[in-house]
Amino acid sequence: MLVNELKNIPRPEVVSQLENSAYDFAINGNNNQAALFFRQAAIEAESHDIDANIILELWNNAGYSFYLTANFIECFKAQYMQIQCAKKNRNKESECWIHVNAAHVLLTINNYRSALEEIQSAFILAEELDNDELRIGVKMYKGNYYRHIHEPDLALEHFLDVLHYYEKINHHILIGTTHNNIGTAYILKHDAKNAELYLRKAVAIFEEHNDHVQLVRSKTILGGVLEGYYLQGNGTNPEEGIAILEEALEDSMKFSLIYDESIIRFILGTTYEHSGNDERAAEEYLKVKELEEKESSLQYIHHIYLRLTEIEERRGNIVEALRYLKLHIDRITNNEKVAQKRGDVELEIQIFRMEEKRKNELLEKELQAKQQINEAVTFHTCEREQFLRKLHNHFELIKSKVNDKSKKQIHTLQKEIKDMLNSANEWSDFEQGFIDAHSELERKLTAHYPSLTPTERKVCILLRAGHSTKEIAQLLHISPDTADTHRTRIRKKLGLKQGTSTLLSLTDL
Length: 509
Hints:
Elements: H1 3-6, H2 13-27, H3 31-47, H4 52-68, H5 72-88, H6 92-108, H7 112-129, H8 132-148, H9 152-169, H10 172-188, H11 192-208, H12 212-227, H13 238-254, H14 258-274, H15 278-295, H16 301-315, H17 318-398, H18 404-422, H19 427-437, H20 439-448, H21 454-464, H22 469-476, H23 480-494, H24 502-507
């Protein structure tokens, strides 16, 4: 379902308000607040049992907003909630792409092992669905994984398979993207000739189809290859490389691609410095410094300080050189702290994944027990129904052979049998079996929250098993409003704050 179609689906007022606030924060560049509001909107949406596609979209927006603020732990948790939602609604295609996105986050923090596990999970789902488009999308990302860990031959093997598929279906933009990826893999192999070949193909495709963002990025890499930046000074055509970089710089400014502008200016600064033009080099480096401080990305800033230190030293400006050197040392120290923090984030995500895996295994056992109980109850119900129908028919046969008084008694018995046949399923039998299957949760609820009534404990168990409010109402023979009231009382007795998921709290028990 498309995002614009989701906008037309009605939501509870609280969800709409939170979602609108989140979009307002996102538009104004406050991604941290946007993430918090998207997350709360997703939690509220889950509690109201609204369209699953809306819940998926809200968790996706929360995860992406957390990613933009480099809050990778919360980003990964939001992706996990997406996966749970997709699994609950048997949406394997969405689940597949969420695993791919999770791999991207893990690669960002250099957690390669976990990233590969996510990619493998995505590939298994693509195979189950027998979907070529999904298989190829996952294969492209596996190629990116191998490129990240500097295994260019394995990356090329995957990228070339992907290219063959996209050429077969004649998807021009994805062909261009794959050419670009192949070119970067050849850079890792220090193969300037093939890198140039594929990058020129990518540039030609993006020019033809007016894809300005991809064009700027392909030109940046191609210019860097020709000039020699990516291949340790072994450029194949430095003059053309500089010309292409200047074209890319002009377009990056035209389309406000600040990240790309920083990269291009850094490459040009390096080029001018190597050619002995310190004045032009310093101009480019100072511009990169200004751009990075404005965007708070600081990707190249410590390199910039070191380059400016060397330039000022050559110029004889020792005071300025020392100032930049101090800034360089401070930035290196800060980078070490950031690296340590990322290591902590990686460890926390690893612990989170292990805990969730354990919870999933427990839930799987509970679901298997539930299925066995359901099968037993279904069998019992069918057997009982068959017996009652036979009994009813038997009474019908003997009615003609007895007196009026006996007929009246038989009629009364037949009416009771009909009432039993038309009655709701026997919750008492199901209840006992279901509670037995969840005895551990029942014990914890009784121990930790003694104020919960027996009915409220049943609601908790059914919530934990993944039932909606409507399903709980049917199973307990109560109205949906009454079931909703029970949920509200449960939240109060569990001491849950607004924005905290009841399901997550029960899962954590």
